[in-house]
Amino acid sequence: MNIEIIGTESLGVRGLSCVVSTTDRSVFIDPGVALGFRRRGLLPHPSQVAVGEDVRRTIIRKLASATDIVVSHFHGDHMPLEDANPYQLAVDDVKELMQSPRLWIKGKNGESPHIADRRDRLLFFLERTADPCEGEEDGSIAFSECMPHGSGDNPSGTVMMTRIEENAEVFVHASDIQLLDDEPVHAILAWNPTIVFVSGPPVYRDLSTDTLIRARTRIKEMANKVRYCVVDHHLLRSVEGVEWLDTLRIETEGTVLCAADFMNRSRNFLEARRKELYTRFPVPEDWHERYSKGLVDTDEFRM
Q1: pLDDT in tens, 18-37
Q2: 184 contacts: CB under 8 Å, gap ≥ 6
Q3: Is domain 2-301 classified as CATH 3.30.70.20?
């Protein structure tokens, strides 16, 4: 089994996209990418935009050889969108590539009407159909029932987790559970994984100390039972989250790591450093407007 993480916060963008290749399948999970559209009053810095362009190109290239495509939920950093903003992946860019692979798309259970409508619009635009696949199995691949996106007490929708097995390796893509609820963690461990890729808690939000302690306990519980627990996404949108992860990594002797560490790539926490980037590398006021019209490129801001 080969696991390639393509786009997530430690690699410079928002998302949890990855490709898992086995002997007879190439499974692309969550082919989407985003940059927080406006954070602390700032649009994405051009250096972020440059990385986003690279990730979009990689997604398109990898979709060309996919046998299966999984969409864990319908947020814009996890799927192509019909109405994508300049920093997301547009369905029009991948429509032809999404005709042949098997589509595994979560159903609408637990979603708001606005978010659930994205499922229908995606399939309408692709001119395809796909039954909800929660709880289904197909050879080496299996899917969980709906799990809370965040806390089960106050979730922002639901997500579907994916399990892929080959020989003694079991990979689980746990999507945006954020480790804020016991139910998905119990489901993950029941799958006996060797590697887990999961969104960590959003420490940049107003979470209680008790909530963060419980999230930490859940990560450690997984780390004691897997070879690698790759924690990324929501957790690494702030400097505080990076520090939170590094403390955990020391405590778990390297079992817990971010996607960049797992892929042996340099860490690139651009979302956590957005304000700093604007201070160090000033941007003309009309840069984003000109970028959206194709009048500028990102080369001068590439790092």
Answers
A1: 999 999 999 999 999 999 99
A2: 144, 147, 148, 161, 174, 177
A3: no
